[in-house]
Amino acid sequence: MEVRNSRRWAPRGRNRWIIAAAALVTAALIRTALQPLLGNFMPDTGFLVAAILVQYYCGLAPALCVMIVGLGLADYLFVPPYRRLDIIDQADIMLLISYPFITIVMITLVERLRREQYRAELLAAVSQSRYEMLLRHDNERLLVRRATVEMRRMLHYIAQYNRSLILIRALDPANSAAPGSFVAAAATATPSGIIDDESFRVGVAYGAKHSQVHQEDLERVIERLVPGHHRLRFLSAAQGWRPVECVCDRFTTTSGEFLILRTEE
């Protein structure tokens, strides 16, 4: 994969130039302190190391500046005759040839290394992002598949217990499909089903058995309906109001979450 931004690995701003100047001054001070010990031996080593370090941390342009300025300082301060530029001898020529050549080779290798390192980091970031996208897509696909299976189970449940349905309640009416659509679908699928034609409340659809439930119990379960078993009072011609065991099941579908209350009879 071609990564065009790999050449832009170096930081931007004036801080890199400040670091380059500090490295240049530090190299000059260290070489000056070692001058009594080294004399005219290896006058360019400190500036070579400074240029390589600046190349590694700050980029190519500051490293070239350190190399050029360091060449002048090394020739002026540490190559005899000291502090004179009007005399050019063999030592000056050797310094002018060897120091730029070695420095350019080294900073070129470091620049290539840093570009490849930055390219590898970019590719790793892209791969990580794509991997996370694939994981997210796979999770969403599994969730949709699970919700679709749950939707089919809910429709089968409604069709199976059509005659014993009391009500269907959407837990989030604003983001859920109208529960009446599922009741209507179940009634269509089950010709013998009995669905009440009364207008649906917000988020609530009534089934065939709701008209037999005591009004207080019906209002109570609508407001506080939770999955599990409930005991409601049903109207009986012979016994008046009698308690009936009911069960509430919860379904999480692609259209939202629903609670279905039915009798166990």
From TrEMBL:
Chief location category: membrane
UniProt-recorded Gene Ontology molecular function terms: ATP binding; kinase activity
GO biological process: phosphorelay signal transduction system
Topological category with respect to the lipid bilayer: Multi-pass membrane protein
Gene3D superfamilies per UniProt: Backbone structure of the membrane domain of e. Coli histidine kinase receptor kdpd (1.20.120.620)
Cellular-component GO terms for this entry: membrane
Localization terms from the record: Membrane
Organism name: Caballeronia glathei
Transmembrane feature ranges: 17-34, 46-73, 93-110
Annotated Sensor protein KdpD transmembrane domain residues: 17-120
The keyword Nucleotidyltransferase appears for this protein: no
Protein name as annotated: Sensor protein KdpD transmembrane domain-containing protein
